[in-house]
Amino acid sequence: MAKILDQHGQPFDLKAIAEPQTARVAMLANTYIESQLGGLTPARAASILAAADTGDMAAQHRLFEDMLDRDAHLVCEIGKRKGALVTLDWSVEPPANASRAEKKAAAWVEDVLRTAVDDLEDVLLAMMDAPGHGFAPVELEWTLLGGERLPKFHPRPQDWFRMSRDRRALRLNDGSADGAEPAPMGWIWHTHGKAKTGYQTRQGLYRVLLWPFLYKSYSIGDLAEFLETYGLPIIVGKYQQGATAEEKASLMRAVTALGHDARAIMPQEMALEIQKVTGAGESAAHLAMVDWAERSQSKAILGQVLSAEAKATGMGSGVADLQGEVRRDILRSDARQIAGTLTRDLVYPLIALNLPGIDGLRRCPRFIFDDGEADDLALYADALPKLAQGGARIPVAWVHEKLRIPEAADGEAVFAAAPAPATPSLPALTPGPSPASGRGGENPLPPGEGRVRAALRAEPPVKVEDTADKMTPALAAAAQPSVEAWVSQIEAMLAGADSLEQFREDLLARYRDLPADDLVEVMAAALAAIELRGRAEVLAGR
User: Fold this and answer.
1) Which residues contact 389 (CB under 8 A, 6 or more apart)?
2) I need a surface site. Which of 118, 185, 272, 470 has the fewest CB within 10 A?
3) Number of Cβ atoms within 10 Å of the Cβ of 529
C-alpha cells in the first residue's frame, strides 16, 4: 500500500487507528462526576478558574456543564447558536483548477457524508460546544465496511483533557504528568480560539458567562426568600393581658395551623388578625439583576438581545436589522471555523485512508457551508440589464452566485417566463394615391392594401407599450387625404347652395357618396392599436 500521510504531513501507521485512543485509558471511563455548584461562591468560582489556568481544567468544565443544567436562559441561547449552524446547507468542493482525481475525491466524500454517515448533524452540534468550552473533541473510530474505512463519532467531555505543562497544547488526561497527545486521524479537534488570543483555557464563552450566571443565582435566591417572607400575609395572634405561657403556646399553634391549613381553634378571648404586608420590600430590584444577567448572556452568545425579548424596543426596525446582521456574522464565523476543522480532521482522513492521489491538505477538497444569502432579486433584475446594455461584461456564473440560483444542467428543465403577447404589425406598402389622383391615379395600391399600411411602411419595429404612440402620427397622415377629400366636397356644396336649407338637403343627399373606405380602414387600425395598448399595460401591471 502506498505511504499515507496524516493531516500534519507526517507518515501515518494504520495500526494507530486499530482502536480508539481512549480505549487504552481505563481511568477515563470510571471518572466520577462531581457537581461544582454546591457552595459555589464568587471566591470559589475564581479559584476554579485559576486552577484551570495552571492546566487542571476538569473542575472548570464540570462547572460549565452544571451551569447548563441550572440555567434555562443559558441553554436556550446556546441552543439558538448551535441550531443555526445545522440549518445551513453544505457541500464538499474540489480545489481550484481541480484534477479529475480531486473532483472524484470531492464527490466521493460528499456522498459518504450524506449516505453512509447518519449522525453528521450530531457531530456538528457536538463541535458547537467549542464556543462555550473553548474546544470540542470528537473521537473517531474507524471501521472497515465494504472495503472502505468509514468513521464512527464519539463526542468526549472536556474534563477528560488537561493542558500540557507548558500550557501550549491540550492533552488527553491519561494519568501521566504531561498527558497524551491526541492521535492524528483519530480526532475531530475543534477549537474556538481564532477570535481571541491567549491560553486555551481562557477562550471559552462560559468563562464570561459564569459571572452573570452566579449573580443571577444569588438574585433568584434572594427573590425566593423575599417571596417566602413577604409573599403571604402575616397572621398576628392577640392574647389578653396576663395570659399564661400555655395560653400563648396554644395561640402560636393556632396561628401556625391557620397559616398552613387555613383552620385553627383557640380560646374565645383570643383574636387573630391577618395583615397584608405593604412596603416591606420590592421584588423589582431582584428582577432587575436577573434581567441584566440574562441580557449579558444573550449579548455574549448571540451578539444581540432582540431574539431573546418579546417586548418592543421603540427604536424601529433598523435596530432589529442591525442586530440580526450581527447574529448572522457570528453564524458565518462559526460555520467557517467548523468547516476548516472538518476539512482537516474528517475530509482529509477519509481521502487519505481510502483514495490515492491526494497527499496533503493543500489540494484536499474543502468542506464548505453555504452561509450566504441571496441578494435583492428586484434590485439585480433592474440593474443587470442596464449594465449589460451599457457594455458591462457580466459573467453568468457570478449572477447565479449572487442570487443563489443554481445553474441548470444540460438537458435539465428550466423555468421560463410566459411569452409576451404578440405585437400586431401592419405590412408596409407603397404610399397610396393623392386626392387628386383618386383610386385610379398614378400610384395605384396593390389589391388588399390601403393608405394605412403604406403610411406605416417606414415605421421601425417598436415595443408593445410604445406601439400606440408610434402609430398616432402615421394614422393621422393616412387619414389626412380622406379628410381633405371630404372637406373639399363639402366646401363645393356650401358654395353652390343658396341657403342653409339647400346645403342641408344637398349634404344629406350626397352623404352616402362621400369617400369613406380609406377613413374606415384608418379608424379600424386606430381602435386596434388602442386595444392592444390597454392589454399591454394590464399585463405589465400598470
Assistant:
1) none
2) 118
3) 20
pLDDT at 26: 73
* Distance between CA atoms of residues 272 and 266, nearest Å: 9
How high does pLDDT run on average in the chain? 78
Instruction: Give the model's pLDDT for residue 155.
Output: 94
| pLDDT reported for residue 176 | 84
Query: H or E stretch including 170?
Result: strand 170-172
DSSP H helix total and E strand total for the chain: 18, 9
Q: Regarding beta strands 148-155 and 135-145, do their DSSP bridges make them parallel or antiparallel, or are they unpaired?
A: antiparallel
DSSP 356: S
Q: Give per-residue burial for 224-233: e unless 16+ CB within 10 Å, then b.
A: eebeeebeee
Half-sphere exposure of 345 (CA within 13 A, CB side): 24
10 Å CB burial of residue 408 (0-12, 13-18, 19+) is exposed
The rounded radius of gyration (Å) of the Cα atoms in the chain is 44
**Three-state SS across 51-103?**
HHHCCCCHHHHHHHHHHHHHCHHHHHHHHHHHHHHHCCEEEEECCCCCCHHHH
Spatial separation of the C-alpha atoms in residues 326 and 313, rounded to whole Å:
17
Give the DSSP H or E segment for 141. strand 135-145
**pLDDT recorded at residue 74:** 94
Buried b (16+ CB within 10 A) or exposed e, 268-296: eebeeeeeeeeeeeeeeebeebbeebbbb
* Angle, helices 72-86/58-70, rounded to nearest 10 degrees: 100
186, 140 Cβ separation under 8 angstroms: yes
Q: Is the dihedral of CA 393, 398, 402, 407 positive or negative?
A: positive
Cell of 415: 423555468
Q: Which three cell numbers stand for residue 349?
A: 482522513
Q: Are strands 234-238 and 271-275 parallel, antiparallel or unpaired?
A: antiparallel
The answer to whether 394 touches 387, Cβ cutoff 8 Å, is: yes
**What does the pLDDT read at residue 491?**
79
Decide: 384 and 394 in contact? Cβ < 8 Å: yes
Could you tell me if 360 and 5 are in contact, meaning their C-beta atoms sit under 8 angstroms apart?
A: yes
Q: Give yes or no for a contact between 430 and 445, defined as CB atoms under 8 angstroms apart.
A: yes
Look up residue 41 and give its DSSP letter.
-
Within 8 A by CB and 6+ apart from 293, the residues are: 212, 213, 215, 216, 219
CA 194 remoteness from chain centre: 23
Domain layout of the chain by residue ranges = 14-208+322-370, 232-276, 374-413, 451-539
- Angstrom CA distances, 173 to 159, 170, 259, stand at 8, 9, 56
pLDDT score of 46:
93
The segments of the chain whose pLDDT lies below 50 read: 310, 312-316, 426-443, 445-449, 456, 458, 461-462, 464-465
Longest CA–CA span in the chain (Å) reads 144
pLDDT at 447: 47
